Predict the 3D structure of the following.
Amino acid sequence: MAERVYIFDTTLRDGEQVPGCQLNTDEKVIIAKALETLGVDVIEAGFPISSPGDFKSVVEISKAVSNPVITALSRAVEKDIDRAAEALQYAKRGRIHTGIGTSDQHIFTKLRSDRDKVLERAVAAVKYAKKYVEDVEFYAEDAGRTDNEYLARVLEAVVKAGATVLNIPDTTGFCLPEEYGRKIKYLKDNVKDIDKAIISTHCHNDLGLAVANSIAAVQNGARQIECTINGIGERAGNTSLEEVVMIMVKHPSIGVETKINTRQLYPTSQLVSKMMNMPIQPNKAVVGKNAFAHSSGIHQDGVIKNRENYEIIDPHEVGVDKSSIILTARSGRAALHYNLKNLGVDLNKEELDEAYERFLEMADDIKVIRDEDLKRLVDQLPFKSA
Ligand code: KIV
Ligand code: ZN
């Protein structure tokens, strides 16, 4: 039987850190409700110590949303944890997400500390958060570049202190999938009592590997994926929720499942893009404008004969109405005939030949032929006016 993977959505925290994407509390509540409808397991609602606005958003999301666990971020600092706990007071199920940098890079040049002191701070933060909530997630920031043996020591200590979820972020998007997968396996094999906690992935996309790394982690035992709608987030972004979910749907051999209602993927993606004023690249997997659009003659002919010749996802499965055949000068007669039929125009072979010649002239001229252009083209055909 497929094992459950939890989807932890951080659109409203890591995603909202994108310059120009900031939202007010009402907007965040609208997105949080959409995430609940989508079926995410955890919503990271904000970083309450960072501003009064973020604090208020965590409070209001906690009141507005019932099913997902609500998480608030903090550093391994008591006043951050106090503020996170206060913001979560109305959450039906609240989780404090606390942590500290564990790579030598972070320990020496950011925290200006040493490995032993960082380990102590990690344990102290988890113990302190446990005074407020049962569910405490620990993040080892920059785990991707952290020495595995030291990382295992830190994680063992925080599990002993009561951490329920262990987040292993590839904060800088540095790891290769195989390397990140091996790291997860090393931790599973070397951290005493790791089975008492859920292993979580949090991958950034600096080398375009966030999704691949998250899947490699799941294949090696991670059971929570931290991700965002449309893959938004710091710098090059985070793991894209819609992509990881559809990979797990399309590859049952991975042996895992989520509770995501995939038909909500496209509507949620559109909502987030509009509210955050962040356009989606047309070739974006799963939710991009061109994800189900076919434009070359060979592909169009194949799709018209059988959609599965060129589509591995049924558009309805992700909430997209239908695939589209985009008419350009690269399109063939089959595509023209198909789109004309959809407009209620059925031409015989000679008529289609004539229409196709005119179509190519028009396409060279205006590039993409839309329905209005097609209607105009048909009206101007000689046999139409005869
Ligand atoms: O990228 C990261 O390491 C983070 C942590 C705060 C979880 O966003
Ligand atoms: Zn992050």
The radius of gyration is 25 Å. The chain has two domains: 3-276, 293-385. The pocket of 3-methyl-2-oxobutanoic acid (ligand 1) is lined by residues 14, 139, 141, 167, 169, 171, 202, 204 (CB under 6 Å). Residues 138 and 199 are 10 Å apart (CA to CA).
